[in-house]
Specification:
This protein is of the alpha/beta class. It has one domain: Spore Coat Polysaccharide Biosynthesis Protein SpsA, Chain A (Alpha-Beta Complex), CATH 3.90.550. Helices cover about 45% and strands about 20% of the residues. It contains nine helices and seven strands. It has a seven-stranded mixed sheet. α1 runs parallel beside α3 and α6 packs parallel to α9. The longest helix is centred in the middle third of the chain and has 18 residues. It is globular, with a radius of gyration of 17 Å.
């Protein structure tokens, strides 16, 4: 049976990793069609909690990889892509608030239709701070001006793609290690001739690691990606 490697980066997530991981692995569709790969690079109890969950669910394909150094989100997802053994890879944020049913739908469509890349597009995120919404819109405008991707929501933490389009075999998967790595991922897929499909999803704000203070760094990363 074809499967998808589902990469879930987890940096210092001991307060919510149990609830988040059980939300994924309790899904019959995801458990049947995905291999769960948690990438842990923090210094709290996240790894121990996930190891306990893995041992309690021997019938499910769960792998937990621990790294001693801080990888950054792009670095963590990149390590997951390198470690994957499946043709398709996806990643989800720990704090993803999208309906699990929509994620299941995307997984089943991918395995049936085999598209190049399918990503979530948040129609609305209930409860998200106004400043967060505004910065997200401005960021997407800048991305499309710089790269012409034609993507309305580059930062939604729900992306699935053919592994070979993103990682044909180089040592490093992404140059960008921070939150702007999503743009590099989509840029790579476009450059490889891949088609990107967006699926509209309703979301609910659950909080997250991203801070508005990251915005200047993300803009600098975009400039690096575009001009260097």
């Amino acid at each position: 049976m074809k499967k998808i490697t589902l990469v879930i980066p987890a940096y210092n997530e001991e307060n919510r990793i149990k609830k988040a991981s059980e939300r994924f692995i309790s899904s019959h569709v995801l458990s049947e069609k995905c291999r769960f790969l948690f990438i842990v690079d923090g210094n709290d109890r996240t790894y121990e909690i996930l190891e306990g969950i893995r041992q309690d669910n021997p019938e499910k394909e769960i792998q937990v990889k621990k790294y001693p150094e801080r990888l950054g989100k792009g670095g963590a997802v990149g390590e997951g892509i390198k470690a994957a053994k499946t043709d398709y890879v996806g990643f989800l944020d720990v704090d993803i608030s999208l309906p699990i049913e929509k994620i299941e739908d995307i997984v089943q469509i991918i395995l049936k239709e085999e598209p190049d890349c399918s990503i979530g597009k948040r129609k609305r995120v209930e409860g998200a701070p106004i400043l967060r919404k505004l910065s997200s819109r401005i960021f997407n405008i800048i991305v499309n001006l710089l790269f012409g991707l034609g993507i309305s929501d580059t930062q939604c933490g729900c992306k699935f793609f053919k592994r070979k389009l993103v990682y044909p075999g180089e040592e490093q998967v992404f140059m960008i290690k921070g939150f702007a790595f999503d743009v590099e991922l989509l840029k790579k897929i476009k450059e490889m001739g891949g088609e990107i499909t967006e699926y509209e999803i309703m979301g609910k704000w659950e909080g997250g690691k991203f801070s508005i203070l990251e915005s200047p760094k993300m803009l600098l990363d975009l400039i690096r990606l575009r001009f260097f």
